[in-house]
């Protein structure tokens, strides 16, 4: 990617809740600072009118680096030449549902979008899936885009990562900036495993500082893993501004690199690391340099961590089997 031409960024579900925050964060520079950008916004036909209203508001912000906006309902046109694609558009869950319950409703969106990306996106496109169930939707898009290297498909677990950092900082009464080396393992679902045994606070081991394994198991892990449901119960709608923030942070780090001396959680196609079957899109600790991520190797996983990761990975296998049966991959 050249650094002066506007970066073409596709965003789907552009008239929805998450995008009502996300688009303004991207356009105001949270993603790439003052680098010029062009937004390519995809919606379904009935939502195009509402999207026109969002575009009017983007215009009314007079963002200096937003060079152009194109909207449409045809992914082959909207994705043409894009370097980054944030796939947000999908139905959100309602109270009482698990994210996996959305597979049959949302899965088909990602076959069509994967094929369109395959045919028209820039060769170096980075595809980040936020729409739920994010990991398996990313798998569907990836499998439907055989000409794009698998490593260019990620799913979002950064919101879980941020939730885990915030819960840990609150427990220890420290600023969230003291927390580093957080990892979410597995699926963006209630089975995810937020790992305090490899996390650090002020450079010291987080689990040792907490010193309370019962809190980790019975309080911390379920609070992080079920935070999405708690927000739906409180707001009547799923998280939106925090999801937009996480989407920006994941893509920003993927393009510009992760902070020196730390890692972030990214759901990426497994290369077999930590015994996660190759090809599943599972969350790992990752660092990014020169626009390429690497899974951090060599972390110690005790019996407790191993069992938690295995349970989440088993759910990813089940989801992959379900979408195979649905003929989506
Ligand atoms: N991975 C994560 O951490 C999180 C994921 N999510 C998920 O993000 C998704 C979007 O959430 P919201 O913005 O709150 O939902 P929303 O319902 O407000 O907006 C979704 C938008 O997507 C559009 N859409 C549907 N099919 C489309 C298609 N084929 N192409 C383009 N656009 C399409 C809809 O018209 C709608 O405007 C949901 O699946 C939600 O569960 C939400 C929070 C966090
Ligand atoms: O919980 C949901 O359905 C929305 C979501 O993914 C989250 O907030 O983590």
TrEMBL record:
Residue intervals of the Lactate/malate dehydrogenase N-terminal domain: 8-149
EC class (word): oxidoreductase
Protein family: Belongs to the LDH/MDH superfamily. MDH type 2 family.
Keyword NAD: yes
Binding site residues for substrate: 93, 99, 132, 163
Signal peptide region: none
InterPro entries, sorted: L-lactate/malate_DH, Lactate/malate_DH_C, Lactate/malate_DH_N, Lactate_DH/Glyco_Ohase_4_C, Malate_DH_AS, Malate_DH_type2, NAD(P)-bd_dom_sf
Superkingdom per UniProt: Bacteria
Chain positions recorded as NAD(+) binding sites: 13-19, 106, 113, 130-132
GO molecular function: L-malate dehydrogenase (NAD+) activity
Reactions accelerated catalytically: (S)-malate + NAD(+) = oxaloacetate + NADH + H(+)
Function: Catalyzes the reversible oxidation of malate to oxaloacetate.
The protein's Enzyme Commission number: 1.1.1.37
Annotated ranges, domain Lactate/malate dehydrogenase C-terminal: 157-324
Taxonomic classification: Bacteria, Bacillati, Actinomycetota, Actinomycetes, Propionibacteriales
PROSITE patterns: MDH (PS00068)
Annotated active site: 188
The name this protein goes by in its record: Malate dehydrogenase
Keywords noted in UniProt: NAD, Oxidoreductase, Tricarboxylic acid cycle
Protein's organism: Tessaracoccus lacteus
């Amino acid at each position: 990617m050249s650094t002066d031409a506007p970066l073409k960024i596709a965003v789907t579900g552009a008239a929805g809740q998450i995008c009502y925050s996300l688009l303004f964060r991207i356009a105001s520079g949270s993603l790439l600072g003052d680098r010029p950008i062009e937004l390519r916004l995809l919606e379904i036909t009935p939502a195009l009118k509402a999207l026109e209203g969002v575009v009017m508001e983007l215009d009314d912000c007079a963002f200096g680096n937003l060079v152009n906006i194109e909207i449409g309902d045809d992914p082959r046109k909207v994705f043409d030449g894009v370097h980054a694609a944030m796939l947000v558009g999908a139905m959100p869950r309602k109270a009482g549902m698990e994210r996996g319950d959305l597979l049959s409703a949302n899965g088909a969106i990602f076959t069509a979008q994967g094929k369109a990306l395959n045919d028209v996106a820039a060769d170096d496109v980075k595809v980040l899936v936020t729409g739920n169930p994010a990991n398996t939707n990313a798998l569907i898009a990836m499998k439907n885009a055989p000409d794009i290297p698998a490593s260019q498909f990620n799913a979002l677990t950064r919101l879980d990562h941020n939730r885990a950092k915030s819960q840990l900082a609150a427990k220890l009464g420290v600023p969230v900036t003291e927390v580093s080396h957080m990892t979410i393992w597995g699926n963006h679902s209630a089975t995810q495993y937020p790992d305090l045994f490899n996390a650090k606070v002020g450079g010291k081991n987080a689990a040792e500082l907490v010193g309370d394994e019962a809190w980790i198991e019975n309080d911390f892990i379920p609070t992080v893993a079920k935070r999405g449901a708690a927000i739906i119960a409180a707001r009547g709608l799923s998280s939106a501004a925090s999801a937009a923030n996480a989407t920006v942070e994941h893509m920003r780090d993927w393009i510009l690199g992760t902070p020196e001396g730390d890692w972030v959680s990214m759901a990426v196609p497994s290369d077999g690391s930590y015994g996660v079957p190759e090809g599943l899109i599972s969350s790992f600790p990752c660092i990014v340099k020169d626009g390429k991520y690497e899974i951090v190797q060599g972390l110690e996983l005790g019996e407790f961590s191993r069992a938690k990761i295995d349970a989440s990975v088993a759910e990813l296998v089940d989801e992959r089997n379900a979408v195979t049966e649905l003929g989506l991959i």
